[in-house]
Amino acid sequence: MRSADAVLQKFRDLCLSLPETSEVGSWGHPNFRAGKRTFATFEWISDRPSIAFRLNTTDINLLLRRKEFFVTPYGRGQWVSIWADAPLDWRFVSDLLRRSYRVVALKRMISALEGKCESEWPANNALQPTPPSAVPSARKRRSARRG
Fold first, then answer.
1. Can you give the CATH number for the domain in which 20 is found?
2. Which of 19, 32, 97, 144 has its CA 20 to 30 A from that of 79?
């Protein structure tokens, strides 16, 4: 299937452009890791190509409202997949990859990601990330309540 090969190659290029990433073949399909932890996969489910992302629960719930997304059949609710045999919005896929990467990456890897030119990774307005600096630490939240 030539179109699936082209999708996989583009997906691979995006994944491997992130800091400290690698491709590992396991469970019969390519998995993309940030360090030692998997953040995305390309796999066949029910004879259809799909891309799986590891995301937070809020993002997963938002994505499942869209018809092209489905619950990944593994991962205890930490993964969501999109069918890869329909036209993909690559800007949106790029945004999901960044989000997925951040879920598993180490702090130094996230810092390296933030240092990349943002024009390489255009944001998509469908899901807006919360910048880490905008999320107060537990200590700051407790002192603000006391205060």
1. 3.90.1150.30
2. 19
Crossing angle of helices 90-104 and 2-16, in 10° steps, is: 50
Higher-confidence position of 120 and 69: 69
Query: What residue numbers bound the domain in which 93 lies?
Result: 2-146
Give residues with Cβ within 8 angstroms of 135, minimum separation 6: none
Is the Cα dihedral 139, 141, 146, 147 positive or negative?
positive
Nearest CA-CA partner of 105 in 40, 42, 52: 40
- How far apart are alpha carbons 47 and 80 in whole angstroms? 18
Reduced to 3 states, what is the DSSP secondary structure of residue 134?
helix
Q: How much of the chain, in percent, has pLDDT values that exceed 90?
A: 59
Q: Is the pLDDT of residue 135 over 60?
A: no
The Cα 88–Cα 68 span in angstroms is 10
2: Cβ contacts below 8 Å, ≥ 6 apart: none
